[in-house]
Amino acid sequence: MQRKLYILLALIAVFALSLTACGGATETPTEEPMEEVPVEEPEEEPMEEASEEEPMEMPEAILPMVDPLTVEGDVVSAGSSTVFPLAERMAERFQDEGYAGNVTIDSI
């Protein structure tokens, strides 16, 4: 009885795999010439030259400031070796500013 069940399950699996492999055939589209659409190129704006007297203005930070004393829990970060030094420095700053949780920084 158990052998028949295994054979039936094997047949169902083979049938399902063959349907998956062979199914989904679609008709190939007919070769019709595509309609040409005119492409508008954007107008180039003249670049402003940076003066040596005035430093460039930096945009405001997108992320809100974080107070390490109000944050709870652990911080875990894993990323590329390119980002690792920055993440490590941020972890040091959090701990220097009084963050009491565990900070784990890994480089992948």
Briefly summarize what is shown:
By secondary structure, this protein is an alpha+beta fold.
Describe the protein.
The chain contains two helices and two strands; from the N terminus they run H-E-H-E. The chain is an alpha+beta fold and 108 residues long. It is 31% helix and 9% strand. It has helices spanning 2-22, 84-96; strands at 75-79, 103-107. It is flat and about 85 Å long. A two-stranded parallel sheet has the order 1-2. 0% of the residues are buried.
Query: Rough shape?
Result: flat
Structural class: alpha+beta
Return the average pLDDT rounded to an integer.
74
How much helix, percentage-wise, in residues? 25-40%
Q: Would you identify the regions where 5 or more consecutive residues have pLDDT less than 50?
A: none
Q: What kind of sheet is the major sheet?
A: 2 strands, parallel
| Strand residue percentage | 5-15%
Q: Provide the gyration radius in Å.
A: 31 Å
- Biggest sheet strand line-up: 1-2
What is the helix/strand order? HEHE
Distance between the termini: 51 Å
Number of helices: 2
Total number of beta strands:
2
